[in-house]
Write a structure and sequence with these properties.
Strand content: under 5%
Order of helices and strands: HHHHHHHHHHHHHHHHHHH
Number of helices: 19
Distance between the termini: 34 Å
Structural class: mainly alpha
Shape: globular
Radius of gyration: 22 Å
Largest sheet: none
Low-confidence stretches: 386-395
Number of strands: 0
Length: about 400
């Protein structure tokens, strides 16, 4: 975490320095002209900053939460600093190599091969290399989608085949090695939309059934998926009967209930940036004064509700606007680039239903890097290249 924080700080500092001392403001402005995503990012950060005026938490705590959303500026920095298609491809290759290293490390752990660089507490049991199985499953699903949709950009005679192999290996890792349900759901969503895009238009309505069919197939083929789905059913039943509310699902359902209650009390402005912990403790004590101590949860494990607690209903709309802006910008790209970008946003939209995936440090940083990189790659491609099928010789 310290390395990530220091790296982000250096990225922002060197990025700003490059923009200031290079004296290429006209070029930067031209690269951002007509884009919706930078405007949305700045609007979101401004909205959270303004909420400092009414936040219910002390200023230092509020500023710490505001800094967590500051990671969104990385998207804008990448769009400003990546000047052309060549630089975007180099960035893409660096990203793919890093993710391939992560994927290979996870498979080695699964095969009981010593991996000295695996620092996660879950390395030996859940085969997560650096973070958690939850984060790594989501990352693996997005990586598989990028490898599949941009397989034509892989250099070399066998590049396309290696990209397809990486996509399949990543999906297998998500479904058969990692146990994170969020990763399973994200992978099913991305696999469903990838299949839909490959079908003739007259058959694309089948996408409504695809997630259920894929889930059914995986239920019988993957012990991990079967176990986690059965556990989900048990946890929901336990929560509904109040037998057990401390399970993963039970905790989420309780936190969502509290978040909705907070939004109902402050629907138009929320309780301010960083207010979740205090609001959740207050509401839980009001519901049950007998509770002696409530541990801070940091977030309600649902990004939409987290923004709603802090900014009210407008906060939820801000989040939708941010995701919509990326989709609108992706419409200007060629087919393969657009599909890769839209897949990443679909994964984010999906996992935000069960986690605070932008607020959290590691997975949030991943999505900011992926979004900035894919937008830069797609929008730095010329009109002729954008609407042509990607070819390894383009690299």
């Amino acid at each position: 975490m310290a390395i990530i924080s220091i790296t982000k700080f250096l990225l922002v500092c060197t990025g700003m320095a490059a923009l200031i001392f290079a004296k290429r403001a006209p070029e930067v402005g031209k690269r951002l002209a007509g884009m919706h995503t930078p405007v949305a990012v700045l609007a979101v950060i401004f909205a959270f900053a303004i909420s400092l005026l009414w936040t219910v938490v002390p200023l230092p705590y509020a500023l710490n939460s505001l800094a967590k959303y500051g990671k969104l500026i990385v998207i804008v920095l990448m769009l400003m600093l990546i000047r052309d298609r060549r630089e975007a491809l180099y960035a893409l290759y660096a990203f793919v190599l890093a993710q391939a290293f992560l994927l290979a490390s996870s498979w080695l752990l699964y095969l009981r091969v010593p991996v000295p660089w695996a620092t996660s507490d879950m390395a030996q049991t859940e085969y997560a290399v650096f973070s958690s199985y939850l984060d790594q499953g989501i990352m693996g699903a997005v990586f598989a989608a990028i490898c599949w949709h941009l397989r034509g950009l892989a250099p070399g005679r066998f590049g396309r085949h290696l990209a397809v192999f990486a996509a399949l290996a990543s999906l297998a890792n998500v479904f058969f090695v990692l146990i994170g349900r969020s990763g399973h759901i994200a992978a099913i969503a991305l696999l469903s939309i990838a299949i839909m895009w490959e079908l003739p238009k007259k058959y694309r309505a089948v996408v409504v059934l695809l997630p259920f069919l894929l889930t059914l197939v995986l239920f019988f083929c993957s012990a991990n998926v079967e176990e986690r789905l059965m556990m989900l059913k048990t946890e929901i039943h336990s929560y509904s009967t109040q037998v057990q509310t401390t399970t993963s699902t039970g905790v989420r359902l309780e936190l969502w209930r509290v978040a909705l209650q907070s939004i109902a009390e402050h629907p138009f402005g929320g309780s301010g940036v960083g207010s979740w912990d205090i609001e959740s403790r207050r509401l839980q004590l009001e519901d049950n004064p007998a509770i002696k101590e409530i541990d801070g949860t940091g977030n309600p494990h649902q990004e939409y509700l987290l923004w709603g607690v802090q900014l009210g209903i407008p906060g939820i709309l801000f989040l939708f606007a941010l995701m919509s802006s990326v989709l609108r910008d992706s419409m200007k790209m060629g087919k393969s680039y657009a599909r890769a970008t839209q897949s990443a946003i679909l994964a984010l939209t999906t996992v935000c239903l069960f986690n605070s995936s932008l607020y959290d440090a590691q997975i949030g940083d991943f999505f900011c890097i992926v979004t900035g990189l894919l937008l830069a790659l797609g929008l730095r491609t010329s009109s002729h290249e954008a609407y042509a099928t990607p070819n390894p010789s383009d690299a």
